[in-house]
Amino acid sequence: MNYFDLFSLPHSFELDLAQLSAAFQTLQKTAHPDKFAHASSQEQMLAVQKSATINDAYQTLKNPLKRAEYMLQQRGTDMPSEQASFQDTMFLMRQMELHEMLEELPHADDIDGAVNEANEVLDSEYQTLFCQLQQLIQDNNQASDKIACEIVRKLKFYQKLQLELERIEEQLFDD
Description:
Oligomer: single chain
Order of helices and strands: HHHHHHH
Radius of gyration: 21 Å
Largest sheet: none
CATH topology of the largest domain: Monooxygenase
CATH superfamily of the largest domain: HscB, C-terminal domain
């Protein structure tokens, strides 16, 4: 079952999240296991499975990176594993620089300013990659899909860095 078809949505990376949410609510009302409390055990089991599929589909489509991965997999593109090494040495060097930037935050003269600057840097670089991902998925060809897989992996690194920044920020400002 294709998740876009399940929610009667166009097969597009750009989604109307309100429309997705409304379709999710409608489907859940019809398939929720509680509606089958007095049905046979087989019907109850089918309702649980359908509800789980609806939930999985919703979680996948509402998250842009999961949606991109799903679309790429639907196109037959093999996603590299999370542990696969990057061939892009410039990206790896940039990641090391960004990690160093985060490690230096507690020692900054102006911690607020340093945190804000780190946030801006991470957000700006994430948005640049995200725009590239949008275009590559829209291009919808084998070469662009392969590059899009690498961009998704890079974006996940930025998400981890953002989480690390939030953790550091909590430590710095909770003291």
